[in-house]
Recover the amino acids of this structure.
Protein backbone atom coordinates (compact mmCIF):
# COMPACT_ATOMS: atom_id res chain seq x y z
CA UNK A 1 0.00 0.00 0.00
CA UNK A 2 1.47 3.31 -0.99
CA UNK A 3 1.50 6.06 1.53
CA UNK A 4 3.67 8.89 2.73
CA UNK A 5 5.33 9.08 6.15
CA UNK A 6 2.84 9.05 8.97
CA UNK A 7 0.18 7.57 6.71
CA UNK A 8 -2.07 5.26 8.64
CA UNK A 9 -4.10 3.95 5.74
CA UNK A 10 -2.94 0.47 6.69
CA UNK A 11 -4.67 0.51 10.06
CA UNK A 12 -8.13 0.92 8.64
CA UNK A 13 -7.78 -2.09 6.40
CA UNK A 14 -6.09 -4.54 8.69
CA UNK A 15 -8.36 -7.48 9.38
CA UNK A 16 -6.27 -9.07 12.05
CA UNK A 17 -5.78 -6.62 14.88
CA UNK A 18 -3.91 -9.00 17.10
CA UNK A 19 -0.63 -8.16 15.44
CA UNK A 20 -1.20 -4.43 15.75
CA UNK A 21 -2.14 -4.69 19.37
CA UNK A 22 1.36 -5.70 20.14
CA UNK A 23 2.60 -2.50 18.52
CA UNK A 24 0.18 -0.03 20.11
CA UNK A 25 -3.05 -1.00 21.86
CA UNK A 26 -4.39 2.52 21.39
CA UNK A 27 -4.09 2.29 17.62
CA UNK A 28 -5.96 -0.99 17.61
CA UNK A 29 -8.71 0.59 19.68
CA UNK A 30 -8.79 3.52 17.27
CA UNK A 31 -9.21 1.13 14.35
CA UNK A 32 -12.10 -0.56 16.15
CA UNK A 33 -13.80 2.76 16.76
CA UNK A 34 -13.38 3.92 13.17
CA UNK A 35 -14.76 0.61 11.90
CA UNK A 36 -17.88 1.14 13.99
CA UNK A 37 -18.30 4.83 13.23
CA UNK A 38 -16.83 5.60 9.82
CA UNK A 39 -18.08 9.19 9.86
CA UNK A 40 -16.16 10.01 13.04
CA UNK A 41 -13.99 13.08 12.50
CA UNK A 42 -10.24 12.87 12.63
CA UNK A 43 -9.69 15.32 15.47
CA UNK A 44 -11.58 14.47 18.63
CA UNK A 45 -10.49 17.66 20.36
CA UNK A 46 -12.10 19.94 17.84
CA UNK A 47 -14.31 22.85 18.71
CA UNK A 48 -17.55 20.89 18.15
CA UNK A 49 -16.49 18.46 20.81
CA UNK A 50 -15.58 21.17 23.28
CA UNK A 51 -18.70 23.16 22.53
CA UNK A 52 -20.77 20.15 23.53
CA UNK A 53 -18.82 20.02 26.76
CA UNK A 54 -19.53 23.66 27.51
CA UNK A 55 -23.25 23.23 26.91
CA UNK A 56 -23.88 20.62 29.57
CA UNK A 57 -27.27 21.19 31.10
CA UNK A 58 -30.82 20.05 30.82
CA UNK A 59 -32.58 21.95 28.08
CA UNK A 60 -36.23 22.70 28.38
CA UNK A 61 -38.92 23.15 25.83
CA UNK A 62 -40.04 26.78 25.64
CA UNK A 63 -43.54 26.86 24.15
CA UNK A 64 -43.37 30.61 23.63
CA UNK A 65 -40.25 30.40 21.47
CA UNK A 66 -41.60 27.34 19.71
CA UNK A 67 -44.95 28.87 18.78
CA UNK A 68 -43.46 32.15 17.71
CA UNK A 69 -40.98 30.36 15.49
CA UNK A 70 -43.75 28.25 13.99
CA UNK A 71 -45.81 31.35 13.27
CA UNK A 72 -42.84 33.06 11.62
CA UNK A 73 -41.99 30.05 9.54
CA UNK A 74 -45.55 29.56 8.27
CA UNK A 75 -45.17 27.19 5.36
CA UNK A 76 -41.47 26.60 5.76
CA UNK A 77 -40.04 23.72 7.77
CA UNK A 78 -39.26 24.46 11.39
CA UNK A 79 -35.51 23.99 11.87
CA UNK A 80 -35.17 20.69 13.63
CA UNK A 81 -32.54 19.58 16.06
CA UNK A 82 -30.32 17.66 13.67
CA UNK A 83 -27.10 16.21 14.97
CA UNK A 84 -26.14 19.21 17.07
CA UNK A 85 -28.76 19.22 19.79
CA UNK A 86 -26.96 21.46 22.13
CA UNK A 87 -27.18 24.94 20.66
CA UNK A 88 -28.21 27.75 22.93
CA UNK A 89 -31.78 28.91 22.62
CA UNK A 90 -31.95 31.69 20.07
CA UNK A 91 -29.98 29.79 17.48
CA UNK A 92 -32.33 26.87 17.48
CA UNK A 93 -35.77 26.17 18.88
CA UNK A 94 -35.99 22.87 20.73
CA UNK A 95 -38.99 20.83 19.83
CA UNK A 96 -40.71 18.57 22.35
CA UNK A 97 -39.18 15.51 20.72
CA UNK A 98 -35.62 16.81 21.08
CA UNK A 99 -35.51 16.89 24.81
CA UNK A 100 -34.38 14.09 27.09
CA UNK A 101 -36.39 13.40 30.20
CA UNK A 102 -35.17 15.04 33.34
CA UNK A 103 -34.27 12.64 36.09
CA UNK A 104 -35.49 13.99 39.39
CA UNK A 105 -32.98 14.09 42.21
CA UNK A 106 -33.88 12.28 45.42
CA UNK A 107 -35.91 14.29 47.87
CA UNK A 108 -34.18 13.27 51.07
CA UNK A 109 -30.60 12.37 51.80
CA UNK A 110 -30.12 8.77 52.80
CA UNK A 111 -27.11 9.53 54.95
CA UNK A 112 -27.59 7.89 58.31
CA UNK A 113 -28.48 10.44 60.94
CA UNK B 1 4.52 2.62 54.40
CA UNK B 2 2.58 -0.20 52.85
CA UNK B 3 4.38 -2.93 54.68
CA UNK B 4 3.39 -1.95 58.15
CA UNK B 5 0.54 0.42 57.80
CA UNK B 6 -1.39 0.45 54.61
CA UNK B 7 -2.08 -3.22 54.46
CA UNK B 8 -3.81 -2.95 57.76
CA UNK B 9 -6.27 -0.23 56.86
CA UNK B 10 -9.38 -1.24 58.69
CA UNK B 11 -12.81 -0.92 57.30
CA UNK B 12 -14.19 1.55 59.75
CA UNK B 13 -17.64 2.64 58.77
CA UNK B 14 -19.68 3.60 55.77
CA UNK B 15 -22.64 5.84 55.09
CA UNK B 16 -25.20 5.62 52.32
CA UNK B 17 -26.06 8.79 50.50
CA UNK B 18 -27.33 10.34 47.33
CA UNK B 19 -24.67 10.39 44.64
CA UNK B 20 -21.64 11.90 46.36
CA UNK B 21 -19.97 14.61 44.31
CA UNK B 22 -17.23 15.92 46.60
CA UNK B 23 -15.37 14.97 49.80
CA UNK B 24 -13.10 17.24 51.86
CA UNK B 25 -11.43 17.16 55.29
CA UNK B 26 -11.03 20.46 57.13
CA UNK B 27 -7.59 21.74 58.14
CA UNK B 28 -7.45 19.86 61.44
CA UNK B 29 -9.06 16.71 60.07
CA UNK B 30 -11.68 16.78 62.79
CA UNK B 31 -14.43 17.49 60.29
CA UNK B 32 -15.19 15.80 56.98
CA UNK B 33 -17.62 17.40 54.54
CA UNK B 34 -19.39 15.68 51.67
CA UNK B 35 -21.50 17.27 48.96
CA UNK B 36 -24.00 15.40 46.85
CA UNK B 37 -25.99 15.55 43.65
CA UNK B 38 -29.07 16.79 45.51
CA UNK B 39 -27.29 19.95 46.69
CA UNK B 40 -26.89 18.75 50.25
CA UNK B 41 -23.83 19.03 52.45
CA UNK B 42 -23.27 16.51 55.23
CA UNK B 43 -20.51 17.13 57.75
CA UNK B 44 -19.03 14.39 59.92
CA UNK B 45 -17.10 15.01 63.11
CA UNK B 46 -14.43 12.81 64.59
CA UNK B 47 -15.20 11.66 68.11
CA UNK B 48 -12.73 12.80 70.71
CA UNK B 49 -10.31 10.00 71.44
CA UNK B 50 -11.31 7.88 74.33
CA UNK B 51 -8.25 7.89 76.54
CA UNK B 52 -9.09 4.54 78.04
CA UNK B 53 -9.59 2.82 74.70
CA UNK B 54 -6.47 4.16 73.07
CA UNK B 55 -6.30 1.34 70.54
CA UNK B 56 -8.63 3.05 68.16
CA UNK B 57 -9.03 6.53 66.85
CA UNK B 58 -12.29 8.38 67.11
CA UNK B 59 -15.03 7.45 64.69
CA UNK B 60 -16.75 9.93 62.43
CA UNK B 61 -20.41 10.69 63.15
CA UNK B 62 -22.86 13.00 61.47
CA UNK B 63 -22.40 16.52 62.83
CA UNK B 64 -24.52 18.68 60.54
CA UNK B 65 -26.68 18.32 57.42
CA UNK B 66 -27.99 21.20 55.35
CA UNK B 67 -29.30 22.03 51.92
CA UNK B 68 -26.59 24.16 50.33
CA UNK B 69 -27.93 24.66 46.81
CA UNK B 70 -31.34 24.31 45.19
CA UNK B 71 -32.02 23.61 41.52
CA UNK B 72 -32.42 26.83 39.57
CA UNK B 73 -33.58 27.77 36.12
CA UNK B 74 -31.87 30.06 33.63
CA UNK B 75 -34.92 31.49 31.85
CA UNK B 76 -32.95 33.19 29.12
CA UNK B 77 -31.39 29.98 27.89
CA UNK B 78 -34.10 27.56 29.04
CA UNK B 79 -31.44 25.68 30.91
CA UNK B 80 -31.66 24.04 34.25
CA UNK B 81 -28.89 24.80 36.74
CA UNK B 82 -28.09 21.65 38.67
CA UNK B 83 -27.93 21.81 42.43
CA UNK B 84 -25.13 19.28 42.52
CA UNK B 85 -22.24 20.40 44.74
CA UNK B 86 -19.11 20.37 42.62
CA UNK B 87 -16.59 21.35 45.29
CA UNK B 88 -16.31 22.14 48.99
CA UNK B 89 -13.35 23.97 50.49
CA UNK B 90 -12.89 24.69 54.18
CA UNK B 91 -11.58 27.94 55.59
CA UNK B 92 -9.03 27.65 58.39
CA UNK B 93 -10.69 28.03 61.75
CA UNK B 94 -10.47 31.55 63.22
CA UNK B 95 -13.01 31.37 66.04
CA UNK B 96 -15.54 28.98 67.51
CA UNK B 97 -17.46 28.66 64.24
CA UNK B 98 -16.41 26.73 61.11
CA UNK B 99 -16.68 28.15 57.62
CA UNK B 100 -16.73 26.45 54.25
CA UNK B 101 -17.26 27.38 50.64
CA UNK B 102 -19.53 25.17 48.56
CA UNK B 103 -20.26 25.60 44.87
CA UNK B 104 -22.53 24.23 42.18
CA UNK B 105 -22.17 25.05 38.47
CA UNK B 106 -22.95 28.74 38.88
CA UNK B 107 -23.04 29.97 42.49
CA UNK B 108 -20.56 29.81 45.36
CA UNK B 109 -21.78 30.09 48.94
CA UNK B 110 -19.97 30.74 52.21
CA UNK B 111 -21.53 28.73 55.02
CA UNK B 112 -21.05 29.27 58.74
CA UNK B 113 -21.43 26.22 60.93
CA UNK B 114 -21.78 27.05 64.60
CA UNK B 115 -22.66 25.26 67.79
CA UNK B 116 -25.24 26.31 70.28
CA UNK B 117 -25.12 24.62 73.67
CA UNK B 118 -26.74 27.28 75.88
CA UNK B 119 -30.02 29.08 75.75
CA UNK B 120 -31.47 31.98 77.70
CA UNK B 121 -34.18 31.16 80.20
CA UNK B 122 -36.21 33.20 82.63
CA UNK B 123 -37.59 35.97 80.46
CA UNK B 124 -40.08 38.25 82.17
CA UNK B 125 -42.50 38.72 79.29
CA UNK B 126 -42.29 35.29 77.64
CA UNK B 127 -42.99 31.77 78.82
CA UNK B 128 -40.32 29.16 78.24
CA UNK B 129 -42.20 27.86 75.19
CA UNK B 130 -42.27 31.35 73.62
CA UNK B 131 -45.83 32.37 74.37
CA UNK B 132 -46.20 35.87 75.64
CA UNK B 133 -47.21 36.36 79.24
CA UNK B 134 -49.97 38.69 80.15
CA UNK B 135 -48.06 41.73 81.48
CA UNK B 136 -50.63 42.26 84.21
CA UNK B 137 -49.67 38.90 85.75
CA UNK B 138 -46.04 39.91 86.15
CA UNK B 139 -45.47 40.89 89.73
CA UNK B 140 -41.73 40.37 90.14
CA UNK B 141 -38.72 40.88 87.91
CA UNK B 142 -36.02 38.34 87.29
CA UNK B 143 -32.79 38.35 85.33
CA UNK B 144 -32.73 35.85 82.44
CA UNK B 145 -29.77 33.47 82.59
CA UNK B 146 -28.08 31.13 80.13
CA UNK B 147 -28.58 27.46 80.85
CA UNK B 148 -27.02 24.48 79.10
CA UNK B 149 -29.03 22.73 76.41
CA UNK B 150 -28.52 19.80 74.04
CA UNK B 151 -25.95 20.64 71.43
CA UNK B 152 -27.44 22.13 68.30
CA UNK B 153 -25.35 22.62 65.17
CA UNK B 154 -26.59 25.35 62.88
CA UNK B 155 -25.54 26.13 59.34
CA UNK B 156 -26.29 29.54 57.87
CA UNK B 157 -25.31 31.04 54.52
CA UNK B 158 -23.20 34.14 55.16
CA UNK B 159 -22.27 35.12 51.60
CA UNK B 160 -23.62 34.23 48.20
CA UNK B 161 -21.27 34.80 45.26
CA UNK B 162 -23.45 34.63 42.17
CA UNK B 163 -23.65 35.61 38.52
CA UNK B 164 -19.95 35.61 37.76
CA UNK B 165 -19.69 32.51 35.60
CA UNK B 166 -21.11 31.91 32.16
CA UNK B 167 -19.75 28.38 32.05
CA UNK B 168 -19.74 25.63 34.65
CA UNK B 169 -17.62 26.10 37.77
CA UNK B 170 -15.22 23.19 38.19
CA UNK B 171 -12.93 24.47 40.97
CA UNK B 172 -12.71 26.78 43.95
CA UNK B 173 -9.53 27.39 45.90
CA UNK B 174 -8.88 29.52 48.95
CA UNK B 175 -5.78 31.70 48.90
CA UNK B 176 -3.15 31.38 51.63
CA UNK B 177 -3.97 34.97 52.56
CA UNK B 178 -7.32 33.63 53.84
CA UNK B 179 -9.03 36.70 52.42
CA UNK B 180 -9.46 35.85 48.77
CA UNK B 181 -10.33 32.80 46.72
CA UNK B 182 -10.57 31.82 43.07
CA UNK B 183 -13.35 30.13 41.14
CA UNK B 184 -12.72 28.53 37.76
CA UNK B 185 -15.10 27.53 34.99
CA UNK B 186 -14.35 26.00 31.58
CA UNK B 187 -12.99 29.23 30.13
CA UNK B 188 -12.44 31.76 32.90
CA UNK B 189 -11.02 32.15 36.38
CA UNK B 190 -12.28 34.80 38.81
CA UNK B 191 -10.76 36.18 41.99
CA UNK B 192 -13.08 37.02 44.88
CA UNK B 193 -12.74 38.62 48.27
CA UNK B 194 -14.56 36.61 50.92
CA UNK B 195 -16.28 39.74 52.22
CA UNK B 196 -17.41 41.10 48.85
CA UNK B 197 -20.16 39.41 46.87
CA UNK B 198 -21.06 41.99 44.26
CA UNK B 199 -17.73 42.10 42.51
CA UNK B 200 -15.03 39.73 41.36
CA UNK B 201 -11.94 40.17 39.23
CA UNK B 202 -11.40 38.10 36.14
CA UNK B 203 -7.81 36.86 36.19
CA UNK B 204 -7.79 34.30 33.38
CA UNK B 205 -9.86 34.32 30.20
CA UNK B 206 -9.16 31.76 27.51
CA UNK B 207 -12.34 32.28 25.53
CA UNK B 208 -11.39 32.82 21.88
CA UNK B 209 -12.98 35.68 19.94
CA UNK B 210 -14.38 33.11 17.57
CA UNK B 211 -15.73 30.04 19.37
CA UNK B 212 -14.92 27.92 16.33
CA UNK B 213 -11.26 28.36 17.29
CA UNK B 214 -11.79 26.81 20.71
CA UNK B 215 -9.19 24.10 21.28
CA UNK B 216 -8.97 23.63 25.02
CA UNK B 217 -10.86 24.28 28.26
CA UNK B 218 -9.84 24.80 31.88
CA UNK B 219 -10.34 21.64 33.89
CA UNK B 220 -9.06 22.55 37.39
CA UNK B 221 -7.38 25.39 39.26
CA UNK B 222 -5.70 25.81 42.64
CA UNK B 223 -3.85 28.44 44.63
CA UNK B 224 -0.35 27.66 45.85
CA UNK B 225 -0.46 26.67 49.55
CA UNK B 226 2.12 29.26 50.62
CA UNK B 227 2.62 31.87 47.90
CA UNK B 228 -0.49 34.02 47.81
CA UNK B 229 0.36 35.37 44.37
CA UNK B 230 0.67 32.02 42.62
CA UNK B 231 -1.95 29.67 41.21
CA UNK B 232 -2.10 26.94 38.59
CA UNK B 233 -4.75 25.79 36.15
CA UNK B 234 -4.89 22.62 34.10
CA UNK B 235 -6.38 22.08 30.66
CA UNK B 236 -8.14 19.46 28.58
CA UNK B 237 -5.00 19.16 26.49
CA UNK B 238 -2.85 17.96 29.37
CA UNK B 239 -1.02 21.19 30.14
CA UNK B 240 -0.69 23.07 33.42
CA UNK B 241 -0.07 26.78 33.56
CA UNK B 242 1.36 28.51 36.59
CA UNK B 243 0.46 32.18 36.90
CA UNK B 244 1.75 34.99 39.06
CA UNK B 245 -0.79 37.65 39.94
CA UNK B 246 1.96 40.20 40.51
CA UNK B 247 2.89 40.10 36.84
CA UNK B 248 -0.34 41.61 35.54
CA UNK B 249 -4.00 42.01 36.37
CA UNK B 250 -5.05 39.55 33.69
CA UNK B 251 -2.95 36.40 33.91
CA UNK B 252 -3.51 35.22 30.35
CA UNK B 253 0.22 34.86 29.91
CA UNK B 254 1.52 32.11 32.09
CA UNK B 255 4.71 32.30 34.09
CA UNK B 256 5.37 28.61 33.61
CA UNK B 257 3.91 26.00 31.28
CA UNK B 258 4.14 22.38 32.36
CA UNK B 259 3.75 19.89 29.55
CA UNK B 260 5.20 16.49 28.87
CA UNK B 261 6.27 16.17 25.25
CA UNK B 262 4.42 13.47 23.36
CA UNK B 263 5.97 11.06 20.94
CA UNK B 264 4.11 11.88 17.70
CA UNK B 265 4.32 8.30 16.50
CA UNK B 266 2.28 7.26 19.53
CA UNK B 267 -0.53 9.64 18.75
CA UNK B 268 -4.00 8.22 18.28
CA UNK B 269 -7.59 9.42 18.23
CA UNK B 270 -7.66 9.01 22.00
CA UNK B 271 -4.41 10.76 22.86
CA UNK B 272 -5.85 14.15 23.58
CA UNK B 273 -8.88 12.84 25.44
CA UNK B 274 -6.86 10.68 27.82
CA UNK B 275 -4.33 13.45 28.37
CA UNK B 276 -7.03 15.78 29.68
CA UNK B 277 -6.21 16.60 33.30
CA UNK B 278 -9.13 15.99 35.63
CA UNK B 279 -7.51 17.23 38.86
CA UNK B 280 -4.49 19.22 40.01
CA UNK B 281 -3.31 19.39 43.63
CA UNK B 282 -0.31 21.07 45.19
CA UNK B 283 1.69 19.09 47.74
CA UNK B 284 1.44 20.38 51.30
CA UNK B 285 5.04 21.55 51.01
CA UNK B 286 4.26 23.62 47.93
CA UNK B 287 7.28 22.24 46.11
CA UNK B 288 5.36 19.76 43.95
CA UNK B 289 2.02 19.43 42.25
CA UNK B 290 0.15 16.32 41.21
CA UNK B 291 -2.06 15.93 38.14
CA UNK B 292 -4.51 13.18 37.28
CA UNK B 293 -5.25 12.27 33.69
CA UNK B 294 -7.32 9.32 32.55
CA UNK B 295 -4.73 6.61 32.98
CA UNK B 296 -2.06 8.04 35.27
CA UNK B 297 -1.02 10.29 38.13
CA UNK B 298 1.96 12.59 37.57
CA UNK B 299 4.06 14.47 40.08
CA UNK B 300 5.65 17.69 38.84
CA UNK B 301 8.46 19.65 40.42
CA UNK B 302 7.51 23.32 40.12
CA UNK B 303 11.07 24.01 39.08
CA UNK B 304 10.89 21.75 36.04
CA UNK B 305 8.41 22.40 33.28
CA UNK B 306 9.35 19.97 30.58
CA UNK B 307 8.31 16.72 32.21
CA UNK B 308 6.95 15.28 35.44
CA UNK B 309 9.40 13.87 37.98
CA UNK B 310 7.24 10.85 38.73
CA UNK B 311 4.52 9.03 36.80
CA UNK B 312 2.30 6.34 38.28
CA UNK B 313 0.04 4.14 36.17
CA UNK B 314 -3.38 3.86 37.70
CA UNK B 315 -5.00 1.33 35.36
CA UNK B 316 -2.83 0.90 32.29
CA UNK B 317 -4.83 -2.22 31.34
CA UNK B 318 -7.60 0.12 30.17
CA UNK B 319 -5.50 1.25 27.22
CA UNK B 320 -6.73 -1.71 25.24
CA UNK B 321 -10.34 -0.93 26.14
CA UNK B 322 -10.43 2.69 25.01
CA UNK B 323 -12.90 2.04 22.20
CA UNK B 324 -15.63 0.77 24.51
CA UNK B 325 -14.74 3.32 27.19
CA UNK B 326 -15.29 6.02 24.58
CA UNK B 327 -18.62 4.52 23.59
CA UNK B 328 -19.93 4.37 27.15
CA UNK B 329 -18.50 7.83 27.96
CA UNK B 330 -16.32 6.47 30.77
CA UNK B 331 -13.29 7.95 29.03
CA UNK B 332 -14.59 11.35 30.17
CA UNK B 333 -14.79 10.41 33.86
CA UNK B 334 -13.09 12.99 36.07
CA UNK B 335 -11.02 11.27 38.72
CA UNK B 336 -9.56 13.28 41.59
CA UNK B 337 -6.33 12.65 43.46
CA UNK B 338 -4.93 13.55 46.87
CA UNK B 339 -1.74 13.64 48.95
CA UNK B 340 -1.26 12.27 52.44
CA UNK B 341 -0.22 14.69 55.17
CA UNK B 342 3.50 14.19 54.71
CA UNK B 343 3.37 14.15 50.87
CA UNK B 344 4.89 10.66 50.83
CA UNK B 345 1.85 8.79 49.49
CA UNK B 346 -0.68 9.75 46.81
CA UNK B 347 -4.10 8.23 46.24
CA UNK B 348 -6.65 8.15 43.45
CA UNK B 349 -9.72 6.17 42.46
CA UNK B 350 -10.45 3.73 39.66
CA UNK B 351 -13.29 1.45 38.51
CA UNK B 352 -14.94 -1.53 40.19
CA UNK B 353 -14.81 0.48 43.43
CA UNK B 354 -11.04 0.11 43.44
CA UNK B 355 -8.73 2.83 44.63
CA UNK B 356 -4.98 3.02 44.30
CA UNK B 357 -2.18 4.33 46.49
CA UNK B 358 1.42 5.00 45.46
CA UNK B 359 4.27 5.35 47.93
CA UNK B 360 6.66 7.88 46.44
CA UNK B 361 9.60 6.72 48.54
CA UNK B 362 9.45 2.96 48.13
CA UNK B 363 7.80 3.13 44.67
CA UNK B 364 5.37 0.47 45.78
CA UNK B 365 1.69 0.63 45.02
CA UNK B 366 -1.46 -1.06 46.21
CA UNK B 367 -5.02 -1.54 44.99
CA UNK B 368 -7.84 -1.70 47.51
CA UNK B 369 -11.58 -2.05 47.21
CA UNK B 370 -14.36 -0.08 48.88
CA UNK B 371 -17.32 -2.39 49.12
CA UNK B 372 -19.52 -3.82 51.79
CA UNK B 373 -19.60 -7.38 50.46
CA UNK B 374 -15.93 -7.96 50.91
CA UNK B 375 -15.32 -6.11 54.12
CA UNK B 376 -16.76 -6.33 57.57
CA UNK B 377 -16.16 -3.47 59.99
CA UNK B 378 -12.75 -3.54 61.65
CA UNK B 379 -11.26 -6.09 59.28
CA UNK B 380 -8.06 -5.56 57.40
CA UNK B 381 -8.46 -4.65 53.73
CA UNK B 382 -7.16 -7.17 51.29
CA UNK B 383 -5.08 -5.93 48.36
CA UNK B 384 -6.66 -6.48 44.95
CA UNK B 385 -5.11 -7.25 41.61
CA UNK B 386 -6.42 -6.86 38.09
CA UNK B 387 -5.30 -9.37 35.52
CA UNK B 388 -4.73 -7.62 32.22
CA UNK B 389 -4.40 -10.64 29.98
CA UNK B 390 -3.47 -14.26 29.94
CA UNK B 391 -4.13 -16.64 32.76
CA UNK B 392 -5.98 -15.18 35.65
CA UNK B 393 -4.61 -16.22 39.02
CA UNK B 394 -6.93 -17.01 41.90
CA UNK B 395 -8.23 -13.83 43.58
CA UNK B 396 -7.38 -11.73 40.56
CA UNK B 397 -10.07 -9.95 38.64
CA UNK B 398 -9.98 -9.87 34.88
CA UNK B 399 -10.34 -6.58 33.04
CA UNK B 400 -13.48 -7.76 31.33
CA UNK B 401 -15.30 -8.33 34.59
CA UNK B 402 -14.63 -4.86 35.97
CA UNK B 403 -17.77 -2.89 36.68
CA UNK B 404 -17.35 0.52 35.03
CA UNK B 405 -20.43 1.87 36.76
CA UNK B 406 -18.71 1.50 40.10
CA UNK B 407 -16.26 4.36 39.94
CA UNK B 408 -14.41 6.09 42.73
CA UNK B 409 -13.96 9.69 41.60
CA UNK B 410 -13.58 11.40 44.98
CA UNK B 411 -11.10 10.57 47.73
CA UNK B 412 -9.66 12.58 50.61
CA UNK B 413 -6.80 12.06 53.07
CA UNK B 414 -6.80 13.37 56.64
CA UNK B 415 -4.21 16.19 56.89
CA UNK B 416 -2.36 14.60 59.79
CA UNK B 417 -3.34 10.99 60.31
CA UNK B 418 -3.70 7.90 58.18
CA UNK B 419 -7.44 8.21 57.82
CA UNK B 420 -8.95 8.28 54.35
CA UNK B 421 -12.42 8.99 53.01
CA UNK B 422 -13.40 7.22 49.81
CA UNK B 423 -16.67 7.87 47.99
CA UNK B 424 -18.22 5.25 45.76
CA UNK B 425 -21.27 6.30 43.78
CA UNK B 426 -23.65 6.16 46.71
CA UNK B 427 -21.59 5.33 49.76
CA UNK B 428 -18.93 7.07 51.79
CA UNK B 429 -16.27 4.84 53.31
CA UNK B 430 -13.84 5.92 55.98
CA UNK B 431 -10.75 3.78 56.49
CA UNK B 432 -7.98 4.16 58.99
CA UNK B 433 -4.80 2.32 59.65
CA UNK B 434 -4.48 -0.10 62.47
CA UNK B 435 -3.19 1.49 65.65
CA UNK B 436 -0.83 -1.02 67.33
Amino acid sequence: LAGGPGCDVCYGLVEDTQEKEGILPERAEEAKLKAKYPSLGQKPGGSDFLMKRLQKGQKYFDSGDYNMAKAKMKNKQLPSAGPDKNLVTGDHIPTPQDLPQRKSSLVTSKLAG
Amino acid sequence: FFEKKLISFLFCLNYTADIISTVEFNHSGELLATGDKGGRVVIFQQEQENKIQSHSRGEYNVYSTFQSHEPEFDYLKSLEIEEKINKIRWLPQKNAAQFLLSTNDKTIKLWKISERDKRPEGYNLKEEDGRYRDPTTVTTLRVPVFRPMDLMVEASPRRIFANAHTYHINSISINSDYETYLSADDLRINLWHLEITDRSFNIVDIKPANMEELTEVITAAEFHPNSCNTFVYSSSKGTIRLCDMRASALCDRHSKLFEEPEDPSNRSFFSEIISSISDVKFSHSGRYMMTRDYLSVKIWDLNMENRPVETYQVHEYLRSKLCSLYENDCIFDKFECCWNGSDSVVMTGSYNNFFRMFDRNTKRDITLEASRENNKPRTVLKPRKVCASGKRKKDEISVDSLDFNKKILHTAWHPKENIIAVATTNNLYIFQDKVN
About this structure: The CA atoms of residues 163 and 174 of chain B lie 19 Å apart.
